[in-house]
């Protein structure tokens, strides 16, 4: 054997190229506060840059940095942006696996490297004197920078700002900025977040002037004393100056403090005071929000009050531009959050674009600001070599936490620092925690990955099930160190919003409201990271030919990739509504509870409507006392107008809307609603009295024609029908599929193994007897003796047709059913739907809190929820009756009891087979499911499964539907 070439890994550290060194970088200025509203000059360098992609880091020498270099044949790229989303290379998705060998800090030779060139003209009026700095807000993952041919240095830390002093290098007129960006670097080992790998200069690059006497860095300390109703302001500045807050009549020296009556800042009432820091050379705008955050008596408090997080985890994502987000998108996200009662964001898993935090300050959200750090993929090797355990990485870790804290420290919305996500445990994290505590004692620390909570002020978990959260709330969790039992508890991730779901949110909320220590949580996550792609609708992992990938696990948000709210968001809005409206103790009353942290109910207008069968009969304003947070009242509802129709169902709908426009929603925006029943639904009478007749191989029964062999309907009232059949299958949801790393959660796999996706239908008898047609049959999977015996009894009164269904299980079923009901197909022309039941959105047994009882109307196409990976969706719950119409005639289906209604232009099998939205092609039928039962949704794609109350156990069942064709 020839001797092996000297392994590169054996290279001494210093001989490693910069991008493989653990050190954070060289040449940068120390971190400081970000994005200051300064009056100093700025030259934005966004826009079209020259671009060249190489497959490896060393494909080209650095001659391109020479100002004389001719880049005429290079491509153009938009900065900010990711080159893989602009036609160069391809994105790749992995959840935890690193898409390269675990050999820290080394990276593969295949290391896509993008050379970027930007020629700019220094404005003629660029101020002379002082310094100028070049500031990069975010480059993924490692950049080396030259200005006018002179190397400035290089850095890692993708979602963190980096600055270079360049004053001495600037030239009058033409300047050339050259940036070499490597996709992979030692920094990649610290950035194993669950998201697309997207290299590039994805946040702005600016040239800032720093005048002589500039305010280099400053720290606004604005606290609030809830016992005295007073705020205290002190601004530290590296350069002395004056601090002015005209509205408060304040004019202070830096370092000097003033205490005075002010309004506090909170997520519910984000009061900001405009101020200014003036140093000799610069005026910097300040936005002061007075608030004090503290852990006291085992609770996380803001301004002396317990905070209840109604939060979401937010990744930065846009379906076209990846993590390069424009202001409108950031703002749109926040408006959507606020309008859905969300009051908190965890910036998973890195500091967001700085403008996002400005918006949080303005609009009011509590923020857990997380450092750009995750080393999750080391779990695959038993955490061997985990950077947070090795000293050589500590400087990089400290650099990251410092860049996070220094940049964002002046945002009142940021109330907690998070060290990072999923890094295991190690001394590096402790070093970060020590640093953060020293630098900013005013904010508690969060990190979920260390159950000992040695470095944190909060006990945080992800995906703990309801049972465990209850135990924690009651102080029965004795598996941790005693000190942990004294800490406030939060779920930094819960309610995995992948595909249809999450289910079980309401049950969590009840726990948060029952146990003070349980201070809420953050749903995982805000948005589906599906990339717009004409081939697929939206692409997910594997769609770009990645060998190693995690499929659609990247699509787990409360909004679809194009930011269409999914039903999960509507559910969450209702579950976390800061006002609860429910039936009172005595009939005809409503109980109103104020669940706000800070606001009384004075800002809301309440109204009532009395509805019968979905029709509003009367309504008006409801006088509700301006309850303080935590208070409740029972309010009498106006009596029913006139005599209600006999047998009709009637109820009050009470709504709470904004009395005045807010910064985030117009006047009249609905915050909360509830319904109070007056008269209950009476069971519809079955149609009987007309006897069946035989004719041409068919059985005529009132308006129905049945096939004498199969017992299925051929038509009703002239509308052709196929079916109905008893069915149990649904296209598994992501939550039915469960988590691949927890085989016991993989319910759909077990359903398929049992054969529930390919049940055999047998007809044993079609008999006419006692004025009815009785169809007996059996539904069973191959290779099993489990079965459901079925009996469908058809009767008619001449106008209407009733089918009464009985299902009797045979054998020992050990799995819940996906669903249980009838499936039938109608002509495609029957594309309009009206119904009386829950709506307008989808619901399943443990979701759909946002759906209310009413009369609704939608086209079949609009009943679909376009989950990125097609799956069961679109059921309407509690349906009393539904009509399908082609405009001329309507087939009305009345259920006894209420049922789940679903209508689609594809069959369940087609929905099940589809992998992407583009696989769903409308066919010749409208497929209708009339379900007596649905299995709940849960959140087993990453979290607990369906709670016992929402499981669809196999048991005897009886239910009925009445069909009738109406004209017009
Ligand atoms: C958890 C991660 O923190 C988050 O980034 C995301 O991957 C989420 O899961 C699932 O989508 S870690 C998980 C193994 C509990």
From TrEMBL:
Region (Disordered): 626-647, 678-698
UniProt cross-references to InterPro entries, sorted A to Z: B-gal_small/dom_5, Bact_Beta-galactosidase, Beta-gal/glucu_dom_sf, Gal_mutarotase_sf_dom, Galactose-bd-like_sf, GH, GH-type_carb-bd, Glyco_hydro_2
Domain of life: Bacteria
Record-annotated Beta galactosidase small chain/ domain positions: 704-964
Reactions catalysed according to its record: Hydrolysis of terminal non-reducing beta-D-galactose residues in beta-D-galactosides
Pfam families, per the entry: Bgal_small_N (PF02929), Glyco_hydro_2_C (PF02836), Glyco_hydro_2_N (PF02837), LacZ_4 (PF16353)
Record keywords, A-Z: Glycosidase, Hydrolase
This enzyme's EC code(s): 3.2.1.23
Top-tier EC class: hydrolase
Family membership: Belongs to the glycosyl hydrolase 2 family.
Protein name in the entry: Beta-galactosidase
The species this protein was found in: Streptomyces physcomitrii
């Amino acid at each position: 054997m020839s001797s092996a070439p000297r392994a590169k890994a054996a290279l001494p550290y210093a001989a490693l190229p910069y991008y493989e060194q653990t050190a954070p970088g060289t040449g940068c200025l120390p971190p400081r506060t970000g994005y200051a509203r300064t009056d100093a000059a700025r030259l934005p360098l966004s826009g079209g840059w020259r671009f060249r992609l190489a497959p490896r880091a060393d494909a080209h020498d650095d001659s391109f940095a020479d100002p004389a270099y001719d880049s005429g044949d290079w491509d153009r790229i938009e900065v900010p942006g990711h080159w893989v989303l602009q036609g160069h290379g391809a994105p790749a998705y992995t959840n935890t696996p690193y898409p390269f060998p675990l050999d820290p800090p080394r990276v593969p030779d295949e290391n896509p490297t993008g050379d970027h060139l930007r020629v700019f003209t220094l404005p003629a009026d660029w101020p002379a004197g002082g310094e100028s700095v070049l500031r990069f807000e975010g480059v993924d993952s490692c950049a080396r920078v030259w200005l006018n041919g002179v190397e400035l240095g290089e850095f890692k830390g993708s979602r963190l700002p980096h600055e270079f002093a360049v004053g001495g290098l600037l030239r009058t007129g033409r300047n050339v900025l050259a940036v070499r960006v490597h996709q992979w670097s030692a920094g990649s080992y610290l950035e194993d977040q669950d998201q697309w790998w997207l290299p590039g200069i994805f946040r702005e690059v600016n040239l800032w002037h720093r005048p002589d006497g500039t305010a280099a860095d400053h720290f606004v300390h604005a606290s609030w004393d809830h016992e005295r109703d007073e705020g205290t302001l002190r601004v530290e500045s590296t350069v002395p100056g004056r601090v002015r807050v005209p509205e408060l009549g304040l004019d202070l020296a830096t370092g000097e403090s003033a205490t005075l009556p002010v309004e506090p800042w909170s997520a519910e009432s984000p009061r900001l005071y405009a101020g200014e820091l003036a140093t000799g050379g610069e005026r910097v705008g300040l936005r002061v929000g007075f608030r004090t955050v503290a852990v006291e008596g085992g609770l996380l408090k803001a301004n002396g009050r317990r905070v209840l997080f109604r939060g979401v985890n937010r990744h930065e994502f846009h379906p076209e531009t990846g993590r390069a987000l424009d202001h409108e998108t950031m703002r749109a996200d926040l408006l959507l959050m606020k309008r859905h009662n969300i009051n908190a964001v965890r910036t998973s898993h890195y500091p967001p674009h700085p403008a996002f935090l400005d918006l949080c300050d303005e609009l009011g959200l509590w923020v857990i600001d997380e450092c750009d750090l995750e080393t999750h993929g080391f779990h695959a090797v038993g955490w061997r070599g985990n950077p947070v355990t090795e000293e050589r990485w500590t400087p990089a870790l400290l650099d990251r936490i410092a860049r996070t804290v220094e940049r964002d420290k002046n945002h009142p919305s940021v109330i907690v620092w998070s060290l990072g996500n999923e890094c295991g445990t190690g001394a590096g994290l402790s070093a970060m925690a020590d640093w953060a505590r020293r630098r900013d004692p005013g904010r508690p620390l969060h990190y979920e990955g260390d159950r000992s909570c040695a470095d944190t002020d909060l006990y945080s978990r992800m995906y703990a099930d309801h049972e465990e959260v209850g135990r924690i709330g009651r102080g029965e969790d004795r598996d941790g160190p005693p000190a942990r039992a004294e800490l406030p508890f939060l779920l930094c991730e819960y309610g995995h919003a992948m595909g249809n779901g999450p289910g079980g949110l309401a049950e969590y909320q009840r726990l948060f409201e029952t146990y003070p220590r349980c201070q809420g949580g953050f749903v995982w996550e805000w948005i589906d990271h599906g990339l717009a792609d004409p081939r697929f609708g939206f692409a997910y992992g594997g769609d770009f030919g990645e060998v190693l990938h995690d499929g659609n696990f990247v699509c787990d948000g409360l909004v679809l990739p194009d930011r269409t709210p999914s039903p999960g968001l509507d559910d969450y809005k209702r579950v976390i509504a800061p006002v609860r409206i429910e039936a009172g103790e005595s009939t005809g009353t409503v109980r109103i509870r104020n669940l706000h942290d800070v606001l009384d109910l004075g800002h809301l207008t309440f109204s009532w409507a009395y509805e019968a069968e979905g029709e509003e009969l009367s309504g008006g304003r409801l006088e509700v006392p301006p309850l303080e947070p935590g208070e409740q009242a029972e309010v009498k509802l106006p009596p029913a107008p006139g005599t209600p129709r006999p047998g009709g169902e009637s109820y009050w709908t009470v709504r709470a809307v904004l009395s005045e426009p807010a910064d985030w929603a117009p006047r009249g925006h609905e915050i909360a609603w509830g319904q109070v029943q007056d008269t209950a639904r009476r069971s519809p009478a079955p149609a009987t009295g007309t006897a069946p007749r035989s004719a041409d191989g068919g059985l005529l029964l009132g308006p129905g024609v049945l096939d004498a062999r199969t017992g299925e309907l051929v038509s009703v009232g002239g509308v052709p029908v196929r079916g109905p059949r008893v069915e149990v299958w649904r296209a598994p949801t992501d939550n039915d599929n469960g988590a691949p790393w927890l085989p016991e959660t993989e319910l759909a796999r077990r359903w398929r193994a049992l054969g529930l996706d390919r049940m055999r239908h047998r007809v044993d008898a079609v008999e006419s007897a006692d004025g009815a047609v009785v169809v007996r049959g059996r539904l069973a999977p191959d290779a099993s003796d489990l079965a459901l015996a079925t009996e469908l009894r058809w009767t008619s009164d001449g106008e209407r047709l009733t089918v009464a269904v009985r299902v009797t299980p045979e054998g020992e079923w050990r799995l819940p059913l996906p669903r249980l009901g009838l499936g039938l197909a109608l002509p495609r022309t029957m594309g309009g739907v009206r119904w009386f039941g829950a709506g307008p959105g989808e619901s399943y047994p443990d979701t759909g809190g946002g759906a209310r009882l009413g009369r609704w109307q939608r086209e079949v196409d609009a009943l679909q929820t376009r989950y990125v990976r097609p799956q069961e969706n679109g059921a309407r719950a509690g349906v009393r009756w539904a009509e399908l119409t082609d405009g001329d005639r309507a087939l009305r289906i009345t259920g006894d009891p209420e049922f789940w209604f679903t209508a689609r232009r594809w069959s369940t099998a087609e929905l099940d087979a589809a992998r992407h939205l583009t696989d769903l092609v409308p066919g010749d039928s409208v497929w209708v499911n009339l379900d007596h039962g649905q299995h709940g949704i849960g959140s087993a794609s990453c979290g607990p499964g369906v709670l016992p109350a929402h499981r669809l156990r196999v048991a005897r069942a009886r239910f009925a539907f009445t069909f009738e064709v109406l004209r017009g």
